[in-house]
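Researcher: Good morning. I'm working through a list of sequences from a screen, and I'd like to move beyond sequence-only analysis. For each chain I'm collecting a predicted structure so we can compare shapes side by side. This is the next one on the list. No need for commentary yet; just the structure.
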Amino acid sequence: MKLVKTPLNDCYILEPKIFGDSRGFFFESFNKKVFDELTGTNFHFVQDNHSLSARGVLRGLHYQIKQAQGKLVRVTRGEVQDVVVDLRKSSSTFGQHFSLILSAENKKQLWMPPGFAHGFLVISTEAEFVYKTTDYYAPEHEKSILWNDKDLNIKWNFDGEPSLSEKDKKGISIQSAEVYP
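Model: Good morning. Structure tokens for this chain:
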């Protein structure tokens, strides 16, 4: 596995070694020892999540102010634009975002430690999105930042209005968001 730094502190792209031939492919999608060595962390993942979404669905930008979750995300079918926002006030990249394409084809993964907001937009017909978390889902602590926040100015790869949940329609601006120390 290869680690690629992003412009955000402590947030990394992980690119697996893929072994393929005419029969198909194989790759190691997660190895705790390798992950810890590459990222310089020692997190324990407690939950795996898997979602299926149609083109134009935007999920996010979510975070939990208590029980903050680190996430290791990837796409197993289709393609998404994945976006993370650093909400750690003590970070030199606080308030900045990073975006990349994750797909079943490129097999890249994105690691964000606790303290980041996260969202994704489906740009293929459908996409299956899989991720590991370092803490359990706690809906009572979940927050949502507006996908189209003017201060963030995220360039989404979609024309028109995305399909949003009621929760995400009520997201708040990053200026009003509760952030991490």
